[in-house]
Amino acid sequence: MSTLPACPVCSMENTYPDGENYVCADCGHEWPMVAAANADDSDDRIVKDSVGNVLSDGDAVVLIKDLKVKGSSITLKMGSKVKSIRLVGGDHEVDCKMDAGSFMLKACFLKKA
Asked: What pLDDT does residue 94 have?
């Protein structure tokens, strides 16, 4: 099994290194090796809750304030416990399911349970 990345344009795995770039033999696309190495490090993000505890997938958290849901009359109440969170990229780092539905929340409104 090759450790070379697949082509980001055509998704074929027929790539090879050429100097400081990777080259796709199928479509001819070239991209720098440095950018590919930095993209692999993006999975090492650290998400902290409102008091500085590090969150991870599967943790249980508690809401620290009432949150109004945009475009709805639903309000998520302070003290509501959310089980089995999932960390995602973006400005809303936490994806979760509650009785009221599925929500994307910011970690600054959560405390690890």
From this structure: 93
